Amino acid sequence: SDFSRETRFSKTQCILCINLLMTCFIDNTRNPDFVRKFVLDFFFEEKQNLRFDVLGINCLLSTLSPSKDFLGQTFCTLGEIIGSTGGRLERTLSGIPGKKCGVIILTAEELSNCRDIATMQLCANKLDKKDFFGKSDPFLVFYRSNEDGTFTICHKTEVIKNTLNPVWQPFTIPVRALCNGDYDRTVKVDVYDWDRDGSHDFIGEFTTSYRELSRGQNQFNVYEVRHGMEVACNPSQPTSLHYMSPYQMNAYAMALKAVGEIIQDYDSDKLFPAYGFGAKLPPDGKISHAFPLNGDNDNPNCVGIEGVLESYFQSLRAVQLYGPTNFAPVINKVANCAAEITDGSQYFVLLMITDGVISDMVQTKEAVVNAASLPLSIIIVGVGPAEFDAMEELDGDEVRVSSRGRLAERDIVQFVPFRDYIDRSGNQVLSMARLAKDVLAEIPDQLLSFMKSRGIEPRPALSSSPLPQLHRHI
To answer: Which CATH number fits domain 251-454: 3.90.105, 2.60.120, 3.30.1150, 3.40.50?
Structure first.
């Protein structure tokens, strides 16, 4: 920062050299923040000397090749950087007699073993008019937070020229570059407007985390930046798990159809209450964690599985999907219905399709424990690449779910990850049949365990009384 030497354009284009390694240069600035990171092996028992040279490039119109000006240098060891408070070392640059060369800030952090790769696509709307032509040339800069509370740049998007509603190209970034494998570490995103003279104006910023961003694969991630401007990850993009492709159903629709077409045969009226969780609802943007997909609070029933699918797709166009992801409200809503009929004439099955991120785990476990005494089973299908540790905990095959010292009366949750049923050969019919078979395999035993626990005997085969009906909620 604060380089005193200037080019004829009044600012400096800087290059940072580490021995023979060179970053991409940063244009037209006296306070460069370099994006490129260097991965070095650290040996505690060795002295690892480093030299940092900062060069300025003069790109004059009268020359075919740029010249390089020496702006300063410093020396240190890798151990000095790592041993500094927060892994952050500030050094004065020198090398030009009688000149103040500015300072260089070096940061280091031990890399995690995380090998995850994130692919994101962002869009924005309601951008302020910035230039003479009434449009903006926006770009985004991503920063990861450091242990000392500072931020380090980790990615820049391309500039989208002359627009108020930019859609940036999808980009891929290692998760450890974004947050070093810590899904809850703060990620800051600055929004800038690029000026034609090479400088840029600050528009606004927002903070998030990789855990929040990863929900963009099946939910809107919407962030207000300034004056009503919003940046979003949304299901209209192919990277979203909710993406409505004209060629094939998305993972949510395939899972719903596969399981629903089997279990609907055991429901006499074929009317299925279907709910969404985690969205801002029109017209006032109120956040709901249990809203009817058909938009009718008085009658959330959908006719058949095709009706559920139709309501799901219509809902995607109407609501703004939003975090956090709370399971407990939907489970409690269905449990309240099941609590009204416990004589064995009806049995309820709740199918939940999710990306695996649970924001209210404590409340969800309590809801499951309470529901375990009711005529209810819960099927959870996890879609996307997320880790499903929380789901495995709810599936009490090995360890029964507990809450506040109470064990669930019986195991009522069955969980499967959707990715285990993706047929590499492209045979979706076969793979969805396997999915339905596995998630429904435990339902008969769960139904019988409830009946036995209440001493409810099977009705005679020739009785005029109807058989117990499965009531399915989605």
So the answer is: 3.40.50
φ, ψ dihedrals at 45, nearest 5°? -85, 0
In contact, 109 and 145? CB cutoff 8 Å? no
Computed on alpha carbons and rounded to an integer, the radius of gyration of the chain in Å comes to 29
Q: Which segments of the chain belong to CATH 3.40.50?
A: 251-454
Beta bridge partners of 380: 352, 415
* CB distance 410 to 423 below 8 Å: no
Which amino acid makes up residue 65?
S
DSSP output for 86-140? GGEEEEE-B-STT----EEEEE--PPPS---EEEE--EEESPPP-STTS-B-EEE
Residue 156 Cα distances to 169, 182, 210, 256, angstroms: 11, 20, 16, 38
Q: What is the pLDDT of residue 5?
A: 40
Q: Which two tokens stand for residue 141?
A: 């800069």
Look at the pTM and tell me if it is higher than 0.90. no
DSSP per position, 458-474: PPPTT-SSPPPEEEEE-
Please give the pLDDT value at position 4. Answer: 43
Return the SS3 of 322. coil
Counting runs of H as helices and runs of E as strands, what totals does the chain give? 10, 28
Task: Judge whether 315 and 276 are in contact, CB under 8 Å.
Answer: yes
Contact 391, 382 (CB under 8 A): yes
pLDDT at 6: 38
Q: For residue 70, report the phi and psi dihedrals to the nearest 5 degrees.
A: -75, 125
Supply 13's token pair: 């284009």
**Residue 294 and residue 287: Cα distance in Å, rounded?**
16
Burial group, residue 252, by CB count within 10 angstroms (0-12, 13-18, 19+): buried
CB–CB of 241/255 below 8 Å?
no
Fold type of domain 117-214 = Immunoglobulin-like (2.60.40)
Work out the average pLDDT over 79-96: 88
Report how far residue 434's alpha carbon sits from residue 269's, in angstroms, rounded to the nearest whole number.
26
**Within the chain, which residue ranges are assigned CATH 2.60.40.150?**
117-214
Distance CA 351, CA 374 (A): 16
Q: What's the CA gap between 242 and 220, in Å, rounded? A: 10
Count the alpha carbons within 13 Å of 1 in the hemisphere toward its beta carbon.
5
Phi then psi dihedrals of residue 18, to 5 deg: -120, 100
Place of tokens 């391309």: 158
CA distance 103 to 108: 17
Q: What is the pLDDT of residues 412-468, one digit of tens each?
A: 999 888 888 876 665 666 677 888 888 888 899 999 999 999 999 887 755 445 555
